[in-house]
């Protein structure tokens, strides 16, 4: 019998490598897009590689490499926070809405999106774009319960292509 007290243990496969004397974990890049706008239909998704992140950096931020993935942002509704083409890391364990945080989600129509979320009295979810050109959206009642939170955005990399 084993008794453990501490942060959640890693589950799943995590590929590691060492560069110099630092340990790195490979976070998978998924061939899918999160729409910063009306929504992206991804169909079948596959892995398109991985990026290495220092394990101590991930640990300090409470990110489990086994429950994190990288996806691309498509659209400009989250500008200036996230731009079209940016790469984001999703922590799939963080699915409880913390107001004003940015999340990847599957909306009621099945489209993958990235939005800033607010939960109001467990009766309404507000989806906000950081770009003021896009209107705020709400989901209430049954629609609210059909949103699936994929995880919180915990890191992003800006793409300079086309700039």
Description:
With 163 residues, the chain is mainly β. It has one domain (16-154): Ribbon (Umud Fragment, subunit A). 7% of the residues lie in helices and 44% in strands. The protein contains two helices and ten strands; from the N terminus they run E-E-E-H-E-E-E-E-E-E-H-E. The protein has helices at 55-60, 141-145, and strands spanning 16-19, 22-35, 47-54, 68-74, 87-91, 101-106, 112-120, 124-128, 137-140, 148-157. Strands 1, 2, 3, 4, 5, 6, 7, 8, 9 and 10 form a ten-stranded mixed beta sheet that branches. A hairpin with a 3-residue loop joins strand 7 (112-120) and strand 8. The longest helix has 6 residues, at 55-60. The protein starts with 15 loop residues before the first strand and ends in a 6-residue tail after the last strand. The model is unreliable at 1-7 (pLDDT under 50). One of its GO terms (biological process) is proteolysis. GO terms for molecular function: DNA binding; serine-type endopeptidase activity.
Question: What's the helix and strand layout?
Answer:
Elements: E1 16-19, E2 22-35, E3 47-54, H1 55-60, E4 68-74, E5 87-91, E6 101-106, E7 112-120, E8 124-128, E9 137-140, H2 141-145, E10 148-157
Parallel strand pairs: 2-4
Antiparallel strand pairs: 1-2, 2-3, 4-5, 5-10, 6-7, 6-10, 7-8, 8-9
